[in-house]
Amino acid sequence: MSTGLRTLYQAVQLFRDLDPELPTKTVVCFVLIANADKDIPMRDLQNALDTSSSSTTRNVAHLSAHYKPKVPGLGLVEAFEDLNDRRYKRVRLTPKGKAFRIRLDSVMG
């Protein structure tokens, strides 16, 4: 296996350790949030993922503390109201999400 593919495999395994059935779109969602220098508007995340508002919300919920009723999320991100316009939400990493990003960075080299 090439070094690049081995690195990708190790990164995928980190996500599988969190949830063996984690959808790829949710992984990409985390990567986009983790790569942002600051919190990211939900609308920008939706555009980057090229998904509907409800799909973006679902992906963020899976990464948040509460995924569905009686189903906990991964606790890696948190969504909150935009203080400048409360109609919109923003998303950022939680301390657990920041720690996971560090682990992911260490695998990716």
Short summary:
With 109 residues, the chain is of the alpha+beta class. The chain has 5 helices and 5 strands, in the order ααβααββββα.
Which terms would index this structure?
single chain; 5 strands; 109 residues; alpha+beta; globular; 3-stranded antiparallel beta sheet; Arc Repressor Mutant, subunit A
Can you put this structure into words, describing what you see?
Helices cover 56% and strands 20% of the residues. With 109 residues, it is an alpha+beta fold. It has a single domain (3-108), classed as Winged helix-like DNA-binding domain superfamily/Winged helix DNA-binding domain (Arc Repressor Mutant, subunit A), CATH 1.10.10. The strands form two sheets. A three-stranded antiparallel β-sheet has the order 1-5-4. Helix 1 (3-18) runs antiparallel to helix 5, helix 2 (24-35) packs across helix 4 (53-63) and helix 3 (42-49) packs across helix 4 (53-63). The radius of gyration is 14 Å and the shape is globular.
